[in-house]
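Duplicate of earlier report; ACT domain-containing protein ACR input re-posted below.
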Amino acid sequence: MEWPACTDEYEKLIIRMGTPRVAIDNAVCSTATLVKVDSARRHGILLDAVQVLTDLNLSIKKAYISSDGKWFMDVFHVTDQNGNKLTDESVLKYIEQSLGSVQNVRTNISNGVTVLELTGTDRVGLLSEVFAVLADLQCDVVEAKVWTHNGRIASLIYVKDCNSGSSIEDSQKINKIEVRLRNVLKGDNDIRSAKTSVSMAVMHTERRLHQMMFADRDYERTPILKFTSDNPSVTVQNWAERSYSVVNVQCKDRMKLLFDVVCNLTDMEYVVFHATINTNGDRAYLEFYIRHKDGTPISSEPERQRVIQCLKAAVERRASEGVRLELCTEDRQGLLAEVMRTFRENGLNVTRAEISTVGNTATNVFYVTDAIGNPADPRIIESVRQKIGLSNLEVKELPLIYQEEAEREDQAVGVGGAVLLSIGSLVRRNLYNLGLIKSCS
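Output:
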């Protein structure tokens, strides 16, 4: 490392002490790449490290976190999305450089986009109205993410002015956008809790969505019954002898699970001193030893219950409920408004969405259910695909319930078997039309 001529030895020492040391090892473990990070302990350092890894869509299979005085030591066992060790030298170098320079800064000046933040009560057709308003106001949606949980919705939408191709700087237009979107979010019965804001800063989208849901207190609202719910188990106990609160989370393993949990612990102002993360098959087991920033453990039963509620919500927000649809087509003004209108007119509710554009191509992912959160009728899905374009909109993932229905067809034997076989054939035919199973003929 080259130092400026004016840097004295004490300054160099401080910089070295504050710079994380990163080591990547592919030899120790046969199934995962080990990423080791040693750094001075500060609030949020664990989240920074986990964020770097999850932003690369890496899967964290195991992790060991420990603090010794003012020093922090992390070991992560990571794989790519296919479960393989990391071998691409450019990826390994990027990880090393990124982890070695993590800073406690998560906002940047925008690069020609305006950021819209929306929260309110979720309902069928809400996103259709939101994107119709943006199209009418000549706003080009560059990127967006939408989460729903317990009947609430949070969304970050990055837009440009259609005419100038850059961020929206006209204060009158910004005010008009806020007013119209707030009216859409209010609907008929959400006068107090609908919120809209406009910012010129770009932040880490998923962390901000967690913060928005947390501020909206989605964790306190009545849970919505889900047809594929895998309820996380969260326990919190105090270890009085060591002044720690011990948090255990058990749930189905998935991408970015550790990020979601650590993000919420950090934003609730808890410090993780030690942690162990293990996965076994499709299950994840996470244990954290935490304290408040002032060094004290959880002090009351209401606080303990609040931590349990918040962590359950953190795990559930990213749950992929419904049929996963992927739209890939040439981008054009009003595209999202048209797609969302088609969903609404066919009674489909979007439970989660990830919208992005690269060049002139729109690549969007939607998770859809019926109006009350049940599995969408495959025939409706097929009808929607025909209207939008079979080659443009594809089914990429089904809820487990569809697969179970298809499997039950093969078990239709004995008395009443003919009736069950008839029902099963209908399910199989619908799945075949969607391109989800192969023909047996």
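The longest helix spans residues 417-433.

Merging into the original ticket.
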